[in-house]
Amino acid sequence: MQEKKPETATKNPKKANLLDHHSIKHILDESVSEIVTSRGYVEDVRMSNIRLVMGTIIIIIALLAQFYKKKFPENRNFLIGCIVLYIVFNGLLQLIIYTKEKNAILFTYPPAGSFTSTGLVVSSKLPRFSDMYTLSIASADPKSISANQPVQFTKSVTQWFTKDGVLAEGLFWKDVEALVEEYAREPKKSK
User: CB–CB of 140/104 below 8 Å?
Assistant: First the structure.
């Protein structure tokens, strides 16, 4: 499979505010998503869709409570029910985010034509007041027989940004591709 290199690197360089770690992490995460999807992995948006549906249900519950036809003393039981449902659905949404997503920036399906039956979960960390960026690639289904061992690297973001805050995409691209290759050739775990 021939890899695509970013053509936008020379036309429109990605620039971050070096004093804002959220800006740096956002640009790096966005680039990681581009690199992994260019390698034939298709993004799996099911988790995002579940979160959107849960959020929509929460909003509908809040709107029903706000615009119910009866005034307060008469609709007390209805409001209590709406409040309970609001709390339950918000709790479920937070539980899904905490248990399933964690630090994930990308979920993928397996690449077309591959023998693996599991996609990837790509996650990243950039702690506050630190320049060390950790990128991890793991199987979307770690219990699958075709799942490889997770791989990760931790490097300083100063390697990938100029003093003006421009991302050196070529260097970052090589590091991420090397990590994807390491995951792909990692021997299967023994059961």
Answer: no
